[in-house]
Amino acid sequence: MSERGLDAAKRGHCHKLQMTYWVMACLLYEEGRPHQQLQAESNKARLQELARQGFSRVLVLGGCCETCDKLNGKKFTIAEALEKMFLPQSKCQRGWCVCDWGVDLNSFR
Ligand SMILES: [Zn+2]
């Protein structure tokens, strides 16, 4: 497989992982069971994918609830975001935290 093909395969894998965790988290949420851990894994896969694409910083896209909005627009390095696992926010007032990671376009290398 060419270098480029291998890259695409890795990207696909990471994206699938993100979607798989997300769907599993949704199912748990619908059943009223704890889903935050799987939602966090989904967000982790997303951060890893952004790092692979060449970004080094991300920012929180809030608009979820009052508590979550305190982090809205805050920037973190991807390493920091992966270490602290900010999303989903543990004190989110919604059942399902819709906060997401956006990329800091200036951090593209
Ligand atoms: Zn939230």
The number of distinct helices, counting runs of at least 4 residues, comes to 3
Q: Can you list the ligands bound to this structure?
A: zinc ion
Oligomer: single chain
The ordered H/E elements are HHEEHE
Spans of at least 5 consecutive residues with low confidence = none
Q: Span from first to last CA?
A: 25 Å
What sort of overall outline do the alpha carbons produce when their principal axes are compared?
flat
What helical percentage do the residues reach? Answer: 40-55%
Number of strands: 3
Number of domains: 1
Return the structural class.
mainly alpha
Residue-averaged pLDDT: 91
Query: Strand arrangement, largest sheet?
Result: 2-1-3
User: Describe the biggest sheet?
Assistant: 3 strands, antiparallel
* % residues in beta strands: 5-15%
Rounded radius of gyration (Å)? 15 Å
